[in-house]
Amino acid sequence: MYSKIALGNVKKSLRDFSIYFLTLAVGVALFYAFNSITQQSMVLKLTEDARSIVQLLSKTITGVSILLAVILGFLVVYANQFLIRRRKKEFGMYQILGMTKRNVSKIMIIETLIVGFLALVVGLVAGIFMSQFMLFATAHMFNATIESFTFVFSTTSLVQTVLYFAVMFVVALIFNVFTVSRYKLIDLLNADKVFQTVKVKNLTVSVLVFIASLGLIAWSYVMLKHNGMRTLDIEFAGATVLVSIGTALFFFSISGFLLRFLQTRKNFYFKGLHSFILRQFNARINTAWVSISLVCAMLFVAICGLGSGFSLVNAINSEMSVFRTYDMSASIRPNQKNELEPHNAETVDYTTTLQKIDPEWNQVIKKAIQADTYYVMDDTTTPSFTYHAIDEVGGKKLADYYGAYVSEDLKDISNRDITVMRASQYNQLRVASGLDPIDFGTNGYMVWTLDNSVAQYWKDSLAQNPNLTIQGTTYHAVGETVDKGQTQGGPLLQPGMGIMVLADQSFPKSVVSAGSYVVGTYNTTDDKEESKFREQIKKYFDDGELVGSDSDSYELILTTTTAQYLSNYAGLSAIVTYLALYIGLILFIACSAILALQQLSEASDNARAYQVLAELGAEKGLASRALFTQIGVYFLFPLLVSMAHATCAMSLMVNIIKTVGNFDVSQSIGGVVAIVIALYGGYFLVTYFAARSIIFRSSRKMQ
Contact, 699 vs 610, CB < 8 A? Predict the structure, then answer.
């Protein structure tokens, strides 16, 4: 009997359960899809490095899932409280008909299990299909191939998802039984006659608090910009506290401020149902400003997570192309027996050295290029060519080009040596990169860098005076003066702070080695060549780090393959992408559902107010637009405030991300906007139509 009643109630109240069902189903789909990544990778042709990264990603997502499960658990409890509030009178009627509170609780438990089971089934089906699409995304990120499509099903992910949501429902059921048991019969029967007490704030005080809230938020922005998000110090903590207090006060006072401000605009205030909408908004936000503030905070985290995550991925992917020209790289630190005493730039043929260490070298490596870098010194081992010389030419320091984000390492860069290399070796790298060699003449120079800020620093500085004097020789700029990442040097040779390329004929006489590099390509493009050389690295180069003895020309040789670096970059890109999407989507769903449930709960209370509107002659279309505006403003305000906070934070994150590589911020913004429209906008529309149905069902004159 109880099952039949519960099933009938679910069928009868489909509109009331719509938001609840939608949230559970989407949550289940996301939990399953993201937790099935390990199983997805099993059908992909991945390297060992990629598989280890996938395992790390899977463990990270499992840990994050626990936190997100707690958030969704609170949401499930919150949603159940809404459903109970909507049906108080119904529960009272059950008790009048002879049911005990225990029997009423049984009906609720069965209803919850029915909705939960259906949401679980629908969510799992959606999650299984979503995971198939994620399989292709994972393959793309790791540059893996899918030889034939295989339908992937993860039993582990299924068990995890069912377990998480089973715990959520058990907790929700306990809360439901406790909530129903503490209500008196008279309270249940009079539920539709009892309204939440609304304390009307003093409008003058609201205006003053609103102005103060804007001041606190603005002050926090200034503090955060000064901090630059470099470190989590007292200034950063202060900015966080101020923006939190300012946001709470903003929502505490916004309704009163808007009411007072728009009342002075009589043409607007008395037009249509504007006065009714404002009064409704004022009443609702007065009782929900705390929860709206929390929603705003979660939206801020979601927007920043998605925006910065996508931007970082774009930056990482843009830098991966720098490594693709060569198959292997070696970084050699020469053996400095004379404690870095200045000497002539005598080139040691490290390619021959590597061939002696690895007798099988020529079996795999077709061509190798060596690049030697140096520091210019005087006769007393004191650097004679530092960034300070460039600072004097341009009038600005390199640290100035990083805005608020200046690492401790960059603050003292003016006293650091500038690295130089020979034009002949640089041109070999250019030709290998598919570029034409540059004619440096007898005393030409060019700056080679991969960093955006460094490139701009050199361009601005050298624009003032393109001629530089080093050890009495005047050098003239050639070409475009700055080579921003066009020439590729492989994973280990990355001229971040800039390498100055000087003509061979006038190369400084007194230098000290800063390090040498050897890059090479395999004999064939067969994947077996990669495996062979990886085996050689383990066998002859001590798994990539070979330490030399006193009699060797080298002190340390670091050897790696480009595939290893690309795999690491792809793994980092995948981790950032999936975590940003996972956390961002769950938080957006949670925020949207909270606002939706609040509006649906208030729609039940507002039915009588709209009934009065109908009795006063308001048309259905006018009332519908009023409801649309009321719900729209309720959804829009926390989104706008969170976007303002995110804009401030993201403007600083941009400076940090720029240190990684190039990126197009419009791409990340586009992704966030798409998610906001799809999820947040979708919940808004579902809420509007559900609330409209609740209100207009209660008002015969508007049907």
Answer: yes
Question: 305-326 burial by CB neighbour count: b if 16+ within 10 A, else e?
Answer: bbbbbbbbbbbbbebbebbebb
* Sheet of strand 511-522: strand arrangement: 467-470, 473-484, 444-449, 499-502, 419-422, 365-376, 511-522, 328-334, 554-561, 545-547
- How far lies 610's CA from each of 258, 280, 301, 603, in Å? 22, 11, 36, 9
Q: Say how far apart CA 588 and CA 586 lie, in whole Å.
A: 5
Distance CA(377)–CA(285), nearest Å, equals: 69
Determine how β-strand 499-502 pairs with β-strand 467-470. Answer: unpaired
Tokens 């860098």, residue located:
449
DSSP 377: B
Contact between 687 and 600 (Cβ < 8 Å)? yes
Phi-psi region at 194: left, alpha or beta (left = phi > 0; alpha = psi -120 to 50): beta
pTM of the model: 0.74
If you average pLDDT over residues 466-476, what whole number do you get? 86
User: 427: which residues sit within 8 A by CB, 6+ positions away?
Assistant: 437, 438
DSSP for 331-357 reads EEEE--TTTT--B--PPP-HHHHHHHH
Cα separation, 138 vs 44, in Å, equals 9
Closest to 25 (Cα-Cα) out of 82, 72, 84, 83? 72
Instruction: Tell me the pLDDT tens digit for each residue of 202-248.
Output: 677 878 888 899 999 999 888 888 776 666 678 888 888 999 999 99
What does the buried/exposed string (b/e) look like for 621-651 if buried means 16 or more CB atoms within 10 Å of the residue's CB? eebbebbbbbbebbbebbbebbbbbbebbbb
The burial of 303, by beta-carbon neighbours within 10 Å (0-12 exposed, 13-18 middle, 19 or more buried), is given as buried
Encoded tokens for 147: 């030889």
Q: Angle at CA 604, nearest 5°, toward 598 and 605?
A: 90
Q: Which tokens go with 322?
A: 């720098």
Question: Do 548 and 556 touch, CB atoms closer than 8 A?
Answer: yes
The Cα–Cα gap between 217 and 211 comes to 10
Residue count (the chain): 703
Structure tokens at 678: 């799809």
271, 285, 613, 627, 630 from 702: Cα distances, Å: 21, 26, 9, 13, 18
Give CA–CA dist 566/572, Å, rounded.
10
Q: What is the mean pLDDT of the chain?
A: 79
CA angle, 549 as apex, 545 and 550 as ends, to 5°?
140
Measured CA to CA, the distance from residue 100 to residue 565 in angstroms comes to 67
